Amino acid sequence: MKILGIWPKERKINETSSYLVLLPLSMMLLIINIPQTIDLYNVWGDIDLIVENLSLGNVTVLIAVLKTAIFWFSGESISVLLSDMEVDRQETNTEEEARRMMRIAKICRRISIGCTLTYYVIIILFVILHLLLIRYIGRILIIRSYFPYNVQSAPNYELTIFAQTLAAWCVGGVYTSVDTFVATLVFHVCGQLKNLKQRLRDLRCEKDNEEFYVKIAQIVKKHDSLNRFVNTIENNFNEMLLLQMVGCTVQLCVTCFLALLALGGNNGIILVQITFFAFYIAYILLQIYLYCYIGEELISESIGIMDAAYECKWYHLSPNEARLLMIIMIRAKVPLSITAGKFCSFSHKLFCNILRTSMSYLSVLHAMNIGNTE
């Protein structure tokens, strides 16, 4: 993220590092997004080329560009979240809490590495696929685009291929790093909620116990802090997540359509094509499921505070002391969540709806394609 210039920190006008983000942003816009958008106008009317344009670059790059802008402008708010995470790490009370935080950190690291490797395998397969296609349809660009010069002549062709590959690397870096970073933030909250639930269960519930009041005050403050943490994530990223949801729905639909077209092809590289589309579809599903999974976990863990309060030995408390637990339970009754533009919460149910919607659009595209060929 530092290489791409989007690592969260306070932006300053007089710091050169604050403008490093302009380099990958310019590459994504000038080498892929704008040329592909112009080419979309040129191929309008040809459903196969329109689908190829939307699937293999344009939608993905547009999402990556907007993610870059949103993440860059949210740098100061996100840096506060990172500081809060460090404070939480230092305030671990037991070895069990420390182990839980370490386990979550390892999970986030594996997710980050897995998503990054998957995307770069896709880029490598995509380049190999188009180099093989040269044997069948001549010198073509890796990503079909319009440029105001002759791309077929040397060294224009080679330089354009190199520039598109480099821009695709920037897209993959931004797309993956932002998603895994947001997932890390939410996983951290889930871990802290687990710790909070354990503290509630371990409360010494005795009448007129001063320690009870101290512990309950700490729990309430911590719960309030986690609520603010999630609200900061939500306020900074809900528009980005709306774009992610819509973009992944479109991408899944058009990519599956291209895979169906590849299955009906008669060239000698169908195996490479199918392998590429399998990885690409898996990556799209992985990214959107990642958000739905962490959203489901966040809802589950935040509601679980209610159960944890009930599981402590509240029946040993006086009525006034028990009411303090009721306040926590009432607050936990409203689950924490991350939403897509505040329209819907990310959850397993939303993931199923995205799949259902994508497949519905796919059936329409397939029917239109059959109608055009008859």
Can you describe what's shown?
This protein has 374 residues and is mainly alpha-helical. It has one domain. The protein has nine helices and two strands. It has helices spanning 22-42, 47-73, 75-90, 95-137, 156-201, 210-263, 270-311, 319-332, 348-373, and strands at 339-340, 344-345. A two-stranded antiparallel ribbon has the order 1-2. A hairpin with a 3-residue loop joins strand 1 (339-340) and strand 2. Helix 2 (47-73) crosses helix 5 and helix 5 (156-201) packs antiparallel against helix 6 (210-263). Its main location: membrane. Keywords: Cell membrane, Membrane, Olfaction, Receptor, Sensory transduction, Transducer, Transmembrane, Transmembrane helix. It comes from Vespula vulgaris (Yellow jacket). This is Odorant receptor. One of its GO terms (cellular component) is plasma membrane.
Approximate helicity band: over 70%
Query: Strand pairing plus helix content: what structural class?
Result: mainly alpha
Number of strand elements: 2
CA gyration radius, whole angstroms: 25 Å
Strand content: under 5%
Average pLDDT across residues? 81
Cα distance spanning the termini: 49 Å
**Helix-strand string:** HHHHHHHHEEH
> Main β-sheet: number of strands, strand sense, barrel status?
2 strands, antiparallel
Taken together, the total number of domains comes to 1
Short description:
Helices cover 77% and strands 1% of the residues.
Index terms:
mainly alpha, 374 residues, two-stranded antiparallel sheet, 9 helices
